[in-house]
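Exercise 7. Given the components listed, write out the predicted structure of the assembled complex. Treat all entries as one system.
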Amino acid sequence: MYTKILQHVSRYIELSPQEKEEFTGILIEKKISKKQFLIQPGDKVMEEFYVVKGCLKAYYLDEMSNKHILQFAIEDWWISDFEAFFNDLPAQLHIECLEDSVLLGIHKDSLETLYERIPQFERFFRLKITNAFVSLRSRVLSTLQKNSKQRYIEFCEAYPNIEQRVANYHIANYLGIKPESLSRIRKELVRT
Amino acid sequence: MYTKILQHVSRYIELSPQEKEEFTGILIEKKISKKQFLIQPGDKVMEEFYVVKGCLKAYYLDEMSNKHILQFAIEDWWISDFEAFFNDLPAQLHIECLEDSVLLGIHKDSLETLYERIPQFERFFRLKITNAFVSLRSRVLSTLQKNSKQRYIEFCEAYPNIEQRVANYHIANYLGIKPESLSRIRKELVRT
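Answer.
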């Protein structure tokens, strides 16, 4: 159960066997079935989640019930309504499982204790959040500077093998293009 | 020169007098005049900057030479081309001074040494980058869910007193609206 997350952490920091034990001791396993919600608008968000297995999407429903997908998460990614989690605000996002998923949650309070007891985790989460910030900034920039085809290629690099797992119209929504345009782009890429 | 940045840091972590000295010892003062560029596309970006005094904008120029303002920075903010800085890529942004500015830069290498010598800075920069990530995510969400007036109010809260310092068309550009719409919104707000 903990092999993957420990490998993931050890790419950034080095932990002693005791520290590993202490870390895994605070993780809360959560199994969620396809189409179930991990988070819904209005929820109090006390955990962030590491994906051991499965696939999820985080989206915002606007007043006209249009869906805007902000993030996918597959194995080795973290997901939550981060704005709600970090700023103690009610959730604004839906986070829905696209496949049966196994997650490991960390509670906000356990995280604070973890920082006190094993300060290396300050480094780990600093590096993780830096990656998230840079990816988001580069996604904002991408929509300004790149065409749909380039953004689709970037998406495939960021989420390897997700094409087989997520419906076309989800990917199109994430990229802010029409499903027809996505099909056209894919055909073009197969040809080249 | 260092009073403001030390106050800023002490809102997040507590430093001994020696640690304060060590920290300020790595800061590089930079004075830049209005209309000069701190960073231009293609630059190698080795520093991030704390604003002691002044006002700057970070923007992207697309292929059609349309300007897209990503960030303003005033006193007590940090600015850089963060994607370039963190990922060792050439700069994509212009960072231009809107007023004569005084900055304190931290070099990438000094930052790594700082983390080793005073690990509390892991915490400081984790918290700063978390704020930046959450603000950016909430800005992306704002464009989906809020009208121009609400976004203008949020902008005024995030950048207090910037209205007197930055031209209307810059603020309109940042909000993704026309300058005429911004004038209309301001008139409406004065009336209410």
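Discussion: Chain B has two domains: 3-138, 146-192. The CA atoms of residues 112 and 122 of chain B lie 10 Å apart.
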